[in-house]
Design goal:
The protein is of the alpha+beta class. The protein folds into two domains: 25-65 and 121-289 and 333-439, Outer membrane efflux proteins (OEP); 69-118 and 294-326, Outer membrane efflux proteins (OEP) (Single Sheet), CATH 2.20.200. The chain contains eight helices and eight strands, in the order αβααββββααβαββαα. The strands form three sheets. Strands 2-5-7-8 form a four-stranded antiparallel β-sheet. A two-stranded parallel ribbon has the order 1-6. A two-stranded antiparallel ribbon has the order 3-4. α4 (122-189) packs antiparallel against α5 (195-230). The longest helix is centred in the middle third of the chain and has 68 residues, at 122-189. The radius of gyration is 40 Å and the shape is elongated. 18% of the residues are buried.
Length: 444
């Protein structure tokens, strides 16, 4: 018995392990491939797709209200005590008295069908229009989720590229610094420099090694963040195929088109919401109209004092008719529902106007940030090249004995600072580019 238990446990563990290995993947993705992967695996997008399916089912459910409704019913009753009624004694020749009489039989049963068909209802007609608009709203919500997720993945992807670039610069600095330190140690052993010169470079080397470890940890964190944004298991292995050098950062022209907001999904969503509010107003107004329903039913009843012959004879009943409902007085409820619906339409119109103004402001801000970022990156790149050249000249002077180790240390520090400024400017420019594309509605 124990052997069977352990065998079952081993099989279960193997199955779970196989499933986990299958869930964890190894992938090499460009930015475009990462976004495509996200569209199929990110939970926010998957839930938005489910909401879209729910909206489609809601439309079909609303349509079903106006289709014929057929229901069946059946009943069986066993009167343990048959109901008794009192009749005037005059009926039986006993004036002034009341005679108890039992009416009915012990067993009763019935079965029937009931059919109804909505002929006219203003609320139903408006509801059909609203359900289709609701479906449109869910579709645009899905599009908005796709856009927001693409923006998040793009920013996370760029963060990894920038961290890789930063690590490359740190590695190059560390390699150069190690060579300088080895040369300085050799000079010290031959008595050409002092011990403090070696110590200064050692401090720089130790700080740079610590910085490298921090960059490596930050890089791993950024990669995990990217996998999370993509909907990929964090334990999976992800390698980026795009590089910083392959990115095209072209100067942008200032957009003066005040209708650019129309390409934004947020504007489309608000327009759809306004349509829903207007249909809601129309629905409340339609409640003042009468409604008409056709109905029909057929049934058979069975009665007997003996259960054995209860169903020997039936008594059919069939009826058809129309039901007209006319609203007369509702205590002012419909009136205030209509007024509130009008106010909701007005609120949405105000929100749309504010969104137009906000999007135009956002476009202006992101254009300014992107232009400033381009100039800042160009400036920091020049500074970095100048710092490299200063360090090269300073080292030559030091090796020829016309410079000091303090100048070399200062040049190393300046180069490191210029590289950090370059990395920050590069990251800011990439993020500003994403924000600008989003503001202009170019991310679809």
């Amino acid at each position: 018995m124990k052997y069977k238990f352990y065998t079952l446990l081993l099989c279960l563990c193997y199955a779970l392990s196989s499933k986990a290995q299958k869930a964890d993947t190894t992938a090499n993705f460009s930015l475009k491939e990462a976004i495509n992967y996200t569209q199929k695996h990110q939970s926010a997008i998957l839930n938005a797709q489910i909401d879209e399916e729910i909206a489609k089912n809601t439309v079909k459910k609303t349509i079903g209200i106006g289709l014929p409704q057929l229901s069946g019913n059946a009943s069986f009753q066993d009167f343990l005590q048959i109901p008794t009624s009192l009749l005037p004694g005059e009926v039986f020749g006993q004036p002034g008295t009341q005679i108890p009489v039992k009416f009915g039989v012990k067993y009763q049963s019935s079965a029937g069908l009931e059919l109804t068909q909505l002929l006219f209802d203003g609320s139903y007609i408006v509801g059909l229009q609203a359900s289709k608009t609701f479906k449109e709203l869910s579709n645009r919500n899905l599009k908005r989720t796709r856009i927001e997720t693409s923006v998040a993945v793009t920013k996370a992807y760029y963060s990894v590229l920038v961290s890789n670039e930063q690590l490359s610069l740190v590695d190059a600095n560390l390699e150069r610094l190690k060579k300088s330190l080895n040369d300085t140690e050799a000079f010290f052993k031959n008595g050409f420099v002092e011990k403090i010169d070696v110590d200064r470079l050692s401090v720089l080397k130790n700080n740079l090694e610590t910085e490298r470890e921090n960059v490596i940890r930050l890089l791993a964190l950024n990669v995990n963040l990217l996998k999370f944004q993509m909907g990929m298991p964090v334990k999976s292995t992800l390698t980026l195929t795009d590089t910083i050098g392959a990115l095209q950062m072209e100067p942008t022209t200032v957009v003066s088109d005040t209708t650019a907001y129309r390409s934004r999904i947020e504007y489309s969503l608000l327009e759809t919401q306004k349509k829903l509010n207007e249909l809601d107003l129309k629905r409340y107004k339609s409640q003042y109209l009468p409604s008409l329903v056709a109905f029909g039913s057929t049934s058979k009843s069975f009665q007997s004092n003996n259960f054995s012959n209860l169903f020997d004879q039936s008594y059919p009943t069939t009826v058809v008719g129309l039901k007209l409902s006319v609203p007369l007085i509702s205590g002012g409820q419909k009136l205030y529902q209509v007024r509130n619906a009008k106010l909701e339409v007005l609120k949405t119109a105000n929100t749309i106007a504010n969104l137009q103004n906000g999007i135009n402001l956002e476009i202006s801000q992101t254009q300014t940030s992107y232009i400033n970022g381009m100039r800042s990156l160009e400036n920091q790149k020049r500074n970095m090249e100048l710092a490299k050249d200063v360090l090269r000249v300073t080292k030559v002077k030091y090796e020829q004995g016309v410079g000091s180790s303090l100048e070399v240390t200062s040049a190393e520090t300046s180069l490191k600072e210029s590289q950090n400024n370059y990395i920050n400017a590069l990251y800011d420019l990439l993020i500003n580019k994403v924000n600008l594309d989003k503001a202009l509605g170019k991310i679809n």
